[in-house]
Amino acid sequence: MGNTKAKNNSNKPKQTGKTVTSVKKQNTVEYVIVNILCLFVFIAFAYIAIMSFVQTSVFDSANYGSEIILYQTDNIALNILFTSLFTVFIFKMKKHCDFFAKVNLKYMHIGLAAFVMIVGLVWIFSVTSVPAADSYNIYETASQAAKGNYSSFNNNSGFYNSDFYSGYSYYNFYPFQLGFVFISEIFYRIFGTDSTMPIQVFNVMCTAAAYIGIVNITRLLFKKRSVEFITILLLAGCFQPVLFCTFVYGNIIGMCFAIWASYFLIKYFQTNKYLLLIPCAVLLVISTLAKYNNLIYLVAFVVMLIIHTIKAKKWQSIAFALAICIAVVGTSNLVIMSYENRSGVKLSSGVSQAMYLDMGINDSYMAPGWYNGIALNDYKNAGLDAKAANAQAWTNIKSRMNYFGKNTNYMIDFFSKKIISQWNEPTYESIWVSKVKSHTNELNWIGNGMYDGSIGQFFELYFNFYMQILFIAFAAGIYFLFINRKTNIETVLLPLVILGAFGYHLLFEGKSQYVLTYIILMIPTASFAFECILNGKYTKIKEFVGKLKEIPDGKESEKA
């Protein structure tokens, strides 16, 4: 007993500032709001976890390039068997905790980063993917801008896929993409315009950095070696973002910078050192330039900063919330204005969120709420008149809502399929994004094996099982945070970002690749769940098992 207590006490962190283990009474406003948010997160991901045992969303192999989703029924008995075996395995591993406790976590950090870098570099050079569709539009613009050529900003200039946009410049529809054009142009000015491989290599570096960021966030939140150790193992097993590095787009870069922005914000909440807000703001600005959807992080940050202002009476928090809103939106607009000045072309305001909502609540040949061209057509049909296009979009939205109201069963089926098509497609298009494209070099055995061989079949099965476990652990982690009274603006920041992504892509345009960058945000909370499960006392279960053992055997009764 004495040794056990000593071990437990050694795990307790020093009480330095406000942390999840502090004994200071929690602010009522904080407690109420974060637990309401946790309730929504728990409901959403408990549903996804349950559905992941029942079915899996897969791409139709007969129409693979078209991204058509099929809903494949799972073998529930097999899923339960694998989960049971995994549970037995982790409890068996608990016996080796003394060994794992001696492992140097710094070396594990280095090992994780090196592992991600090696796997990522091997993969991108095995398939040498060439960009297409939107990513090629960006490549064309950025590589030409690096040479001082801005012709792709002009209408009817014969730019890539111009017929699809009726001759209008791509950036009249999507001016927000100029943030990633700006980042790409820097790369092409430094490394040349002949290849996108420098950006793919940077994607790999950003993935490794993002993983280390998640580990450091875990350390800030839970301050326990065991939780940090489990996080490293879970990250090492999460290959989807690594495989996604072939995609020459802002997803991975934006994910990395947003995660590190989250790290500095959490550290600010724990220490109240306002200088930490500077790197937080800079990183978030770069993140949203790379991927404008990372405004989801901005919203989560603002919500938590408002709560922090009320809780800690730190008015600098609300001032910072206002400042980052101005910085993020303002920087994006400055980049657009810069390209307008350099090209001499005044761009249209682009497709609005109302048009994206119109698209997101309608059917698609891919899956409910996936890309269907409605937003683009709203804008084109209005002659790029944003006011007229928005009016049409809102008319369509009201009509669609009325239809949902009169057909409740259809509405439930629509949104449930939309959720499952995104979150329960366990590859998250990480293989699809390179398989459907051309390649500069002939595929080697790794590329061929992943696309059409046993390697790919293995990874599809593995991803399905991995995500089942992660969804269960994440939902359980939210529950354990609540019952252990560890829900606060620090521990709930990443779950709030995930909830924001869930809600946004529930209503607006959806795709499984859009949620890929959020799956690793679940890992700290999932790791906390594993730690709680492994160190649970299970007193009632042990008492029940003990009573069963006391029941006399039938043969012994006969002998007596």
TrEMBL record:
Q: Does this UniProt record's set of keywords contain Ribonucleoprotein?
A: no
Q: Name one Pfam family in it.
A: PMT_2
Known EC number = 2.4.-.-
Q: Where in the cell is it found?
A: Cell membrane
Regarding the membrane, this protein is recorded as: Multi-pass membrane protein
GO molecular function list: glycosyltransferase activity
Q: Which InterPro entries match?
A: LipidA_mod_glycosyltrf_83 (IPR050297), RgtA/B/C-like (IPR038731)
Could you list the residue ranges that cross the membrane? 32-56, 76-93, 105-125, 168-188, 200-221, 241-266, 273-289, 295-311, 318-339, 461-482, 489-508, 514-534
Q: What is this protein called?
A: Glycosyltransferase family 39 protein
Instruction: Tell me what organism the protein belongs to.
Output: Ruminococcoides intestinale
